[in-house]
Amino acid sequence: MMSSPAAARRFAAAALLGGALAASSAPPASSAPPANAPWVLTEKHVRLHGGDGHVLRLGPGDDYAVLQVAEAGDEFLVLAKRDDWYNVRLSDARSGWIHESLCEEFDDMSGLEFRPNPRLFSRIGSFTISPYSGGYSFDRKSNSLLAGGRVGYYLFDFVEVEGGVSWTHVRRPAEIVESLFDLRLEAEDFHMLFYELNGNVLLLPGRQLVPYATLGAGSAVLRGETETSMNWGGGIRFFVSKRTALRWEFRTYRFDAGSGASRRTNTNFAFNLGTTFLL
Question: How far is Cα 220 from Cα 151, in angstroms, rounded to an integer?
């Protein structure tokens, strides 16, 4: 028996109202992420699989009217989910419901843009502070404690400039020293302060373990005299966090010292351990 036009209109209105109520009462697609979780911009989509002729309805159930027929491979943005039914966007003004057995859910990450943390992967423009201590070998005849610190700045990912100051106390035992006229027994006990400006080239920038080569120039202050010095060497930084790294370094210092006939070239070695803090 054919229904009257008025009854058909009443059925369509009831179906539309039921679909709107179901959409408004459906829970959100996902809960809010934890406060400390990384922010990733994704959207839930469904892709129709199987054969063609998939039916999208006005509400979450087979009793609701057919709204649209879709083909296998069509993709839709998920607005909500209720039981076994997905509420998907069909256009800017329409949405429909489809059963989960007819589709598969996936995350659309096409709009995701990867931006490395500037304090971890790209350190351009970052300042560093590096206190350290270690051992100092003066002219291969005296081993003493070394202490100092450096302030650095990243010009590029792989280039850093550093300025620093260090101190050591040289104690060399008495030894026979030959002069122009005689032989004499001399011992050395003095404090030495040296300033330096260095350039570091990072061999694996942006990694957790970063080896580097270093070259610099400066001044050594000893026995009341200031001598120009050169230094070179290498080291390793191991980042234990985004802003903190342990640091091992070996460096050779070379400078002339003394006066007159006793002036000579000193080749000294320094090994130090320290910590680098990114600001």
Answer: 18
Is the residue at 158 inside a domain?
Answer: yes
Percent of the chain with pLDDT strictly greater than 70: 74
Instruction: Give me 206's structure tokens.
Output: 């942006």
Q: Is 102 helix (H, G, I), strand (E, B) or coil?
A: helix
**Amino acid at the residue 195:** Y
163-187 per-residue burial string, b: 16 or more CB within 10 A, e: under 16: ebebebebebeeeeeeeeeeeeeee
Banded pLDDT at 23 (limits 50, 70, 90): very low
22 pLDDT higher than 50: no
The model's pLDDT over 112-157, given as tens digits with 9 standing for 90+, comes to: 555 555 545 557 888 999 999 999 998 767 788 999 999 999 998 8
SS3 state of residue 5: helix
Residues 198, 227: one domain? yes
Whichever domain contains 245, its CATH number is 2.40.160.20
Between the alpha carbon of residue 176 and those of residues 139, 179, 202, 223, 265, the distances in Å are: 15, 10, 44, 20, 18
- Asked if 177 and 65 sit in the same domain, the reply is no
CB-CB contact of 163 with 149 (8 Å) = no
Non-local CB neighbours of 56 within 8 Å, separated by 6+ positions? 66, 67, 68, 69, 70, 88, 90, 96, 97, 98
DSSP per-residue codes, 194-263 = EEEEEEEEESSTTSSEEEEEEEEEEEEEETTEEEEEEEEEEEEEEESSSSEEEEEEEEEEEEEES-GGG-
Q: Which domain holds residue 80?
A: 43-113
pTM, full prediction: 0.54
Report how far apart the first and last C-alpha atoms of the chain are (Å, whole number).
Answer: 82
104 shares its domain with 147: no
